[in-house]
Structures are given as structure tokens and as C-alpha cells.
Amino acid sequence: MWIDTHCHLDAAEFDADRDAVVARAKAAGVRQIVIPAVDAHNLERVRELAHEHDLTYALGIHPLCVMGAKPGDLDRVGEALAQHKDDERLVAVGEIGLDYFVEGIDEDTQLRFYVEQLKLAKHAGLPVLLHVRRSADKLLAGLRRVGFSHGGIAHAFNGSEQQAQAFIDLGFKLGFGGTLTFERSLQIRRIAASVPDDVPVMETDAPDIPPQWLYKTAEQREAEPGQARNEPAELPRIAESLAALRGWTVEQAAEITSANARAALPRLPR
């Protein structure tokens, strides 16, 4: 069994065939998917989808959405976490974090939302799904500042080997997905090959981060809208790259990464 620890199943790209997307995933052996929220407006939607499709979800505000957040949105996250605290399908707070790649997003605002949501996760006793994009050191500093000890997953990890070890030391697993399938992703592939067995988890970030066989150039995407969409059914094939890098069989990759996902997100069904 495979676990996709990060898939935006609520995204508009799936509106036309969402049921079929879930069916293809389950037919491919992806029996569990974590659906993270990205803003206060889709908190209820990800919960509904998780219950509708026998999946799991996380609640939080994405760093790329903080500039559009309204006063009280952090309170809405806290209220939703309190309201659904006994919902076994609620497995984490996320997607939260910092993004210093995209321009035009105030760093102080991002940091405030990140730290406040870490506090919410600490209070709820839940792990976090962290957005890491040119921000690993400040994410780590925030974890230490809050005294956060519930771990989670550094989603789509793309930092250095030293930063990877720092997250591991704080009890985090590292998420790997479509980027692994590109031979030029030397740093990510090197980290995926070298971390301890109990660290890697699999994810798609669908509909984003398509693997090599789905990738289109910007020109191709403009000419063929929607043709580069990623989906969770691609996970087993993506995982073949991780297995090859680590000398695992595909069956070992499924067993090990699923066990790691459950260790990171203890509420995941077994």
C-alpha cells in the first residue's frame, strides 16, 4: 500500500473528474491520501473530501495565501482544529511554512502566520506539513522558537544535507515526489539516497510537481492547458526512482515509506 502524504485534491484542476482521480489512485495501490488546506476558505472543503473518499486531511494557511488572508483567519484555523479535534481523519496542521522564492509576499506576514500556526499545532498536539522553499533555516528557527516537538513532514524537501539533518533531528520526515524523477535534480536525489531508512515519505503535491514523463515546458503548457496535471495514481511510478536510488525493491519502498508516513502522522489509519 502507498500513502500520498500531500495532494491538493480540492484543487480546481480536479473538478471535472475528481472521483475518477481517486479511483485511479486506489487502483494503483495508493490507498491513503492526505489533503492539506491552503487557506481559511477551504478548511471545510478538505474535510468533506476526506470523509467522502475515505481519506485524511490537514488544516492550515499556506504561505502563498497569507497576503489574501482576512482578519480572523488564524482564529478560523484554531476554531476548526478545536471543532474537529476528535476527527481521526484530521492528521496534521498544514500546509504551513515559508516561501522566499515567490516575490511580493511580505516576509514578516509569512513569519507571523507560520509561528502562530505552529502554536496552534502545538496546542492541538498535531504534527505539521511544512512548505519549504528557500526557507529551511527560518523554518527551523521557528520550530525551535516555539518549542515544537510533534514533528511532521518537510514537504517537497529541497534544502541542503545539513538542513535535512536538522529537520530529522527535530523529528521530521522528508517528503519526496516528482522532482526525484529528473536526473538533473542532483541535490534532491543525493539526499533521498543518503538519509536514514526511517526518513523518506512519498508525496505527489498533485496537481503540481509533475514527474518527468508528465512534464511540459511553459510553451507546451500554454498551448495545451491541463496537460501537465499530476495526480496520486502516479505515486508508485515516482517511487520507483526512490527505490532505485536506495537499492530497494518497489515493495520495500511501499512498506518503508508508508511506515514512515504513519510515524510522522500517527493518526493515519493502519
From TrEMBL:
Keywords: Hydrolase. Its EC number is 3.1.21.-. Gene3D superfamilies: Metal-dependent hydrolases. CDD domains: TatD_DNAse. The keyword Transmembrane helix does not apply. It comes from the Bacteria. It is an enzyme of class 3 (hydrolase). The keyword Iron does not apply. InterPro entries: Metal_Hydrolase, TatD-like. Signal peptide: none annotated. One of its GO terms (molecular function) is hydrolase activity. This is TatD DNase family protein. It comes from Pelomonas aquatica.
